[in-house]
Amino acid sequence: MLHAALARETQRVQLRAGSVVLPLHHPIRVAEEWAMVDNLSGGRVGISFASGWNPSDFAFFPERYANRHQEMYQSIQTVQALWRGESIQIRGGDGQTVAVQIYPTPVQSELPIWITAASNPNTFIKAGELGANLLTHLFDQDMAALAENIARYRQARSQHGHDPDLGQVTVTLHTFLGKDLETVREQVRSPYCTFLKSNIHLLKGLGFSRGLPLEVDRLSADDLDHVAQVVFEKFLAIAALYLARLKAVSA
Amino acid sequence: MHQLQQIGVNEIACLLDFGPDADLILQSLPYLNQLRDATATASNENSASQPHTLFLAREIVKNKEIVNRETSQDPFESSLAAVQQRCNNVLTGTEFYHHLRDCGVELAQSFQGIEQLWRRDGEALGRIKQLDILEPDPAYTTHPAFLDACLQVFFTTLPVQPGQSTTRYMPVGFEQLQMHHPLGTQVWSHAVLREASSDPTLYQGDVRILDSTGTVLMQVNGLQLQQVAAVGASDRSHSPFNPQSMTGFTDSTGTSPRYPITPLPHHPSLPFKFSAIASLPKPLRHP
User: Fold this and answer.
1) In 10 A of CB A24, how many CB atoms?
2) Chain B 138-157, CB below 8 Å of chain A: which residues?
3) CATH assignment of A2-172?
4) How many Å apart are CA A191 and CA B15, to the nearest integer?
5) What residues in A contact B24, CB-CB < 8 Å?
6) CB distance from B14 to chain A under 8 Å?
7) Domain coverage including residue B161
8) What are the strands, taking DSSP E only, across B104-250?
9) What are the pLDDT digits (tens) for B75-124?
10) Quick one: B40 and B179 in the same domain?
11) Chain B residues whose beta carbon lies within 8 Å of the beta carbon of residue A187
12) I need a surface site. Which of A162, B62, B143, B279 has the fewest CB within 10 A?
């Protein structure tokens, strides 16, 4: 819905989802809704698909949680087939099998896709095999690990007939730029720490998805503050790179 | 930024989900723009020293899920544009084949598939069309004359060296050929010469044949051109490339061009005879 509104408010910018957690939805719905936004925007949409990790997000299809990665790759194929105008077989209300297509026909003949990868090398390899672009971050991998993962991705592209140099590697970074580091630090400290604390329940889900149950509910308010400050300083180190670069260029 | 660029990141997505004040974000946008301009300049400078990278890293700064792009060009179009910009010696196919004829290399009509050529020393890009006069032959996955036209592009990567244009090279081998998809009827051929080897009479490079969406259809790695003989003694230094270096890619089994083919010299270090390419179409099956 946000992208439908943005499609009409903007003219040139690309409209991308980062990410559509595919196992939470039916692929027909994803394909058809985004085909509509593609029409509203004149062919500017792109989607990064993710498998999801937070158990409570799987309200519609809790049974998909265990096999969420496989579910995602299967559904990507379905979305792409529907996007190209192919029909897929479904079972109707009368129990009969019927072929369905999506409407409206999208503007772009192929849907530009990204795969959202955290730090699991297999996700990078799979994205390369599919010839998809890659959306990733530095929350749980450092620069050296990311470099290795990008190399795996490029190699997998090459081995599966996709130009290794063409896939887009997109990295998300919390970003805020200002005139100097001290100003920025104080402008963002409070909102960033509030953000971390209010999203602490997500950490619980993340821990569960990786087989590391966390009992964040039992942390005291002081502990939470402390954790937030530590994480803030860690992420600020990345922002500092931006500022140093900017200074060097303007000097 | 520099580090990310070095490890192959093409795009930064700026996350603003941590709740800074909206006015503050808007006020800080000029800084973001400065950063974008600065990195775009840096990435252009870097690309000049990396001719072997087809994809020119574009730093695109993205706000939340909205990319702030000047145009909505797709990555393949922009990499094509980057190669065309680098390879600024541009010839139409007609000019190219006329030029060859002026230099005494005459190709049969069916081998003149290059429509447009962009070249510089070390790199070339060609747009190739399968000519209608080529009769479909079920014996071939890819018609040899069409493949020949794709690989002619590689010859034009040879550096132009005044006074040495009488040297003749011929294709003698390749390391690896991968066929991923059938070639279709209209393709791009991108050839890059590798760094000079210790043997000054041998040039080696890689050719990728791509379709209009950037999908690699065929890769020929380690394609080798061997200096075989010196002919004539006229100075061709005005030439945009060395047309005298052209000899046939395909063999003389009736489908070959009408230009001279010298017998393959014995070269023990070469893993394949180049003529393998012409006889490959039968066993080649795309996956």
Assistant:
1) 21
2) none
3) 3.20.20.30
4) 13
5) 187
6) yes
7) 87-279
8) 114-120, 123-129, 167-173, 176-179, 186-193, 202-210, 216-230
9) 777 778 888 888 888 889 988 888 878 777 788 888 899 999 999 888 99
10) no
11) 20, 24
12) B279
